[in-house]
Write a structure and sequence with these properties.
Blueprint (H helix, E strand, L loop, with lengths): L1 H20 L6 H26 L7 H16 L8 H25 L3 H20 L1 H4 L5 E2 L14 E2 L2 E2 L2 H25 L1 H11 L1 H6 L4 H27 L1 E2 L6 H14 L4 H20 L19 H19 L3 H11 L18 H7 L3
Antiparallel strand pairs: 1-4, 2-3
Helix pairs in contact: 2-7, 2-10, 2-11, 2-12, 3-4, 3-5, 3-10, 4-10, 7-8, 7-10, 8-10, 11-12, 12-13, 12-14
């Protein structure tokens, strides 16, 4: 019992310890990949709540990431109110939630492919606004991102255990803290009454309504919460990229987020995280090692060659097909099944006394 509990706590805290010590051993390139993956995981957890738990198809996740990213840039920068960056971060997340709230009446009454088409319109509308509202978004060239105080290379760099902590290392811990906040709030929602209500909606609207679940209200609430997670992911991406451009927040980004939750496993926070890391890190790694991979051309090669980004999309497209055919519950389900196949420790067997040694038998033997 004690050994099993120790293993349980080890599984919980060992990943946290590993993530906290990574900046002491990895260079800026690997930390930047990890930071992009953390930001993608935050957005994927939000989309997993909406699509995997509530059963609402959304193709407009890129729009809410853009609202969060550009909202932060405008609120903290010039031209703009020039607010303190920390306050601008919070207000940008609330702005993304407000945008989701404006769309929530549609999400409360429409479902399935119809909601997917409706959210698809948000992506095209948002992309058009980002290109034309030059005074706010900077147009096609985008805008530079105001850094958070203490998270720039110009600030004094503390040295811990011989490792200088620059902007990449400090942003890593910021992203880790925001992801931890996302992880615990999302798991709390899923394990509480809202999560059970959303799961009931996904399985059967009629049964959920009979049990007292307000269908339109919970659908709208799921859309708002998902939009806020996307806004937070957009702010973290903006801080990591240091510049935002409209072309990044296109339809392909929404498709990438759908791929994350499908590969990782619908309705699972851990699965959405694993899918986000896979989809985000794969093209970056292939771009770095393109000269060592067969059939993959280096970035900027001649036309007609398969670049790292296209090759990565082919790979996780194939991963989606394999998941749908052989593991519909994604990487999370595969991990759960592999863990269930491990031989479990059997409790020690207590010695049993033979019938001849029981008091009743001994008394019977000595009876004349």
């Amino acid at each position: 019992m004690i050994r099993a509990r120790a293993r349980l706590w080890g599984r919980r805290f060992l990943p946290v310890v590993v993530l906290c010590v990574l900046p002491f051993y990895l260079d800026a390139f690997w930390l930047r990949i990890g930071l992009f993956s953390l930001a993608a995981a935050i957005g994927a957890v939000g989309l997993g709540l909406l699509t995997g738990t509530a059963g609402q198809l959304s193709l407009g996740h890129a729009f809410f990431l853009a609202v969060g990213a550009y909202g932060y840039v405008w609120l903290a920068g010039e031209p703009g109110p020039g607010l303190p960056p920390a306050l601008a971060l919070v207000l940008a997340v609330l702005l993304a939630g407000a945008a989701g709230g404006l769309f929530s009446p549609v999400a409360g009454r429409v479902r399935g492919i119809y909601l997917g088409v409706a959210t698809l319109a948000l992506v095209f509308l948002g992309h058009h606004v980002l290109l034309t509202a030059d005074s706010v978004t900077g147009g096609f060239n985008g805008r530079s991102v105001p850094p958070l105080p203490g998270f720039t290379d110009s600030d004094p760099q503390p040295v811990l255990l011989g490792v200088p902590f620059g902007s990449a290392e400090r942003l890593w811990y910021l992203g880790l803290a925001l992801f931890a906040l996302t992880w615990f709030t999302a798991r709390g929602l899923l394990r509480g009454r809202p999560g059970r209500a959303l799961a009931a909606l996904r399985d059967s609207e009629t049964a959920a309504a009979v049990m007292g679940v307000h269908v339109a209200r919970y659908r709208s609430a799921a859309f708002v919460v998902s939009s806020m997670y996307a806004g937070l992911a957009g702010v973290l991406l903006a801080l990591a990229f240091r510049r935002v451009v409209p072309d990044y927040f296109a339809l392909a980004l929404s498709v990438d987020y759908l791929a994350m939750i499908v590969v990782g496993g619908l309705g699972s926070v851990a699965g959405a995280t694993a899918g986000a890391v896979f989809v985000t890190a794969l093209p970056l790694l292939m771009a770095r090692y393109a000269d060592q991979l067969p059939l993959v051309a280096a970035p900027g090669a001649a036309d007609g060659a398969v670049g790292p980004t296209e090759a990565a999309r082919y790979l996780y497209g194939a991963a989606i097909v394999l998941v749908l055919l052989y593991a519909p519950d994604g990487l999370r389900g595969v991990t759960r099944r592999l863990r269930a196949r491990r031989p479990r420790e059997r409790p020690p067997r207590t010695p049993t006394s033979s019938p001849a040694s029981t008091p009743a038998v001994r008394a019977k033997e000595h009876t004349p």
